[in-house]
Amino acid sequence: MTIKKRTLEDFFGKTRAETQTAETIYNDNYERPCRGVEGLTIIENFVTKDEEQVLLDYLDSQPWRTDLSRRTMHFGGTYCLMPPRNCSPEEKKRIEKTIIDAPPMPSEMNFILEKMFDRNIYDRDFPPEFCIVNEYLSGIGISAHVENFRFDEPVCALSMAGVDTMRFRELDQANDGSVRSGKAATAHKTGNSQDITLPRRSLLLMRGPARNIWQHEIVRGRRKPADWRRVSLTFRVLRRSQTMKRNQFDIAQEKEVKLLNDALS
Fold first, then answer.
1. CA 187 to chain centre
2. Which terminus of the chain faces fewer neighbouring Cβ atoms within 10 Å, N or C?
3. 141 close to 10: Cβ distance less than 8 angstroms
4. 114 has a pLDDT exceeding 90
């Protein structure tokens, strides 16, 4: 008969610190690395169920862009629509040249930014001013791409309403192949790929190699329940050099306006 050697835990139980470790990590939204992709981390339960519902209700009360296979919404910066496949070359050219100003980040998203500032994900002096919202239904995806290099890091994606998988494909070298650039499909890949689960209410953070030399995509054609839905909010911030240039341009414009007003007064 083998007698099991008893430990202190058998007499006194686990210490409070030991029993709280897992719970503390869960409640404190621990930022954990994603295996296989350097620079990729994820924070589970970044927003609460109530916060998620409030934000979804707000987004569903706003107008969605419907020229793509998925519904989208833009905050900050500019964008252009995708021409229909059956349109004439002249119409395609006209549509692609039409630049639309997106509204600024709404106050309804301020609580998300505050969470990011509190965790030092972004600097309060250089907050993310750009957010694109994508709605994914069963079978809908987005092609493999790297975020435009005019944006700094991290690139952050908040997942709401449903769980999904994002595929990462490693490139031979950094490649600025955004979705609309036309360069993403021709970027040379190493053949290494990783599928990363995106839990509901989680925040995915892409830094370093994950942001620059790994393409990411939502694979099309994956069938899910008819009522399945995932809403993704991707936050991006301009590189500081571009932000400073833009601020200098704004200051110069303000000076010109002031001089003109002084001359007219």
1. 22
2. N
3. no
4. yes
β partners of residue 145:
216
User: Cβ distance 38 to 210 under 8 Å?
Assistant: yes
- C-alpha distances (whole Å) from 241 to each of 28, 78, 122, 150 are 33, 19, 16, 10
Q: What is the distance between the alpha carbons of residues 175 and 186, in angstroms, rounded to a whole number? A: 10
Say yes or no to pLDDT of 137 above 50. Answer: yes
Q: Which residue has the higher pLDDT, 20 or 61?
A: 61
The whole-number pLDDT of residue 23 equals 34
Q: From residue 194, how far is each of 165, 191, 215 by CA, in Å?
A: 10, 10, 10
Token pair of 253 as six digits = 């414009």
Tell me how far apart the alpha carbons of residues 221 and 197 are, in angstroms, rounded to a whole number: 17
Q: Any idea which residue has 């200051």 for tokens? A: 251
Q: Which of 249, 263, 201 is nearest to 46 (CA)?
A: 201
Q: CA separation (Å) from 262 to 252, 254, 255, 259? A: 15, 12, 10, 5
Gap between the Cα atoms of 186 and 168, Å rounded: 16
CA distances from 79 to 48, 95, 131 (A): 31, 11, 12
Give the domains, in start order, of the chain with CATH numbers. 30-257 (2.60.120.590)
Give the per-residue pLDDT at 70: 93
Q: In this predicted structure, which of 13-17, 87-91, 99-103, 162-166 has the lowest mean pLDDT?
A: 13-17
pLDDT confidence of residue 181: 61
Mean pLDDT of 86-103: 86
